[in-house]
Design a protein that fits this description.
By secondary structure, the protein is an alpha/beta fold. Helix 2 (93-103) runs parallel beside helix 4 and helix 3 (109-119) packs antiparallel against helix 4 (132-145). It has ten helices and 14 strands. The longest helix is centred in the middle third of the chain and has 17 residues, at 162-178. The strands form three sheets. The chain has a six-stranded mixed sheet, with helices on both faces. A five-stranded mixed sheet has the order 13-10-12-11-14, with helices on both faces. A hairpin with a 2-residue loop joins strand 8 (199-204) and strand 9. Bound molecules: adenosine-5'-triphosphate (ATP). Adenosine-5'-triphosphate binds at residues 14, 17, 19, 37, 39-45.
Length: 295
């Protein structure tokens, strides 16, 4: 089977900056996939390479088995929505939507009209004069109503307020259930968007450091709180992502916590709390820390 999106040893250097280093992965079928990472991690670079907006220094990117820059992909099969989208001079929201309806064969006019109302996307003002949130609103309509087989979203809703962002997540999940497709979305707002993703790719300083099923990842770490000696004994040689102590009490975030370990912790009377996807990623991609908190 031909992968829908594929990277093999994908590397991009800008003079002395390595934006992406030896990234390999394969996305084989419909799903909502998260590309997560800190500022400057390489998320936009990855999306630019996957859509042929830029060329790799080495390695290969493939979109539906073809080179994204030179392959003859089906017209309108790919949508790439990004915050920094440039529009032709004089374009208003309605021009953007009209153009999109001509490009994407699965464009749904009725759905677009509903989304325009939901997001309050202004149609009669020049794109250049819109606020960041208003531009994002137009982008969100295109992102969803295009129903492209492969949709790449680079922080598409970054300018939207919290209410509109929640609406975007709800609409995306509902529409995806009815029209499954490959949606690859980058975001900083990990906890907010966490429930959308079935698989998560985390990039740190250009390297792909996590490529894992989101549910597996969510259950992989726990926070244990209890008497320090007891916590440490139970943790043993497991990887500690974070440790805080207050007097004789320790709070330790442990990676690789399986069901047996969790049951043992509960049986030992230790407090056990789940670790959110955001906390886990921050811990795995941040500096491992040990804190002594003075009372
Ligand atoms: N055209 C360019 N010229 C030089 N350096 C670049 C260029 N584009 C990106 N970079 C550098 O490559 C690295 C990765 O940038 P990229 O935009 O891919 O990160 P990002 O994960 O999308 O960041 P953010 O979350 O802040 O948008 C950064 O160090 C950035 O400064």
């Amino acid at each position: 089977m031909t992968a829908v999106l594929e990277a093999h040893g994908l590397t991009k250097r800008f003079k002395d900056v390595t934006a992406l280093a030896d990234v390999s992965f394969s996305i084989d079928g419909p799903g909502v996939y998260g590309v997560l990472g800190r500022n400057g991690a390489g998320k936009t670079t990855l999306m630019n390479l996957l859509t042929g907006q830029d060329f790799p220094t080495s390695g290969t990117a493939r979109l539906a088995g073809l080179d994204p820059a030179t392959g003859s992909h089906a017209f309108g099969a790919i949508a790439f929505i990004k915050e920094s989208q440039a529009y032709p001079e004089g374009y208003k929201g309605r021009h953007v939507l009209k153009a999109a309806s001509g490009i994407f064969p699965r464009w749904d006019d009725a759905y677009a009209a509903q989304l325009i109302e939901d997001f309050g996307a202004p149609l009669d003002r020049h794109m250049k004069k819109l606020s960041r949130g208003q531009r994002s609103a137009v982008g969100a309509v295109v992102a969803l109503a295009s129903r492209a087989e492969v949709t790449l979203l680079d922080e598409p809703y970054a300018g939207l307020d919290a209410v509109a962002r929640q609406l975007f997540y709800d609409r995306l999940l509902t529409d995806f259930a009815e029209h499954p497709r490959v949606i690859l979305m980058s975001t900083h707002l990990i906890d907010e968007a966490a429930d959308l993703f079935q698989r998560v790719l985390v990039i740190d300083k250009g390297r792909l450091v996590i490529d894992q099923d989101a549910d597996e990842l969510r259950g992989a770490a726990v926070r244990l709180v209890g008497p320090a000696a007891q916590v440490d004994r139970l943790v043993g040689s497991r990887e500690v992502l974070h440790r805080e102590t207050l007097g004789g009490t320790a709070a330790v975030t442990v990676d690789g916590a399986d069901d047996a370990f969790k049951a043992e912790a509960v049986a030992a009377g230790l407090e056990l709390a789940p670790v959110s996807l955001q906390q886990l990623i921050v811990r795995r991609t941040g500096v491992q820390s040990t804190e002594e908190i003075s009372a």
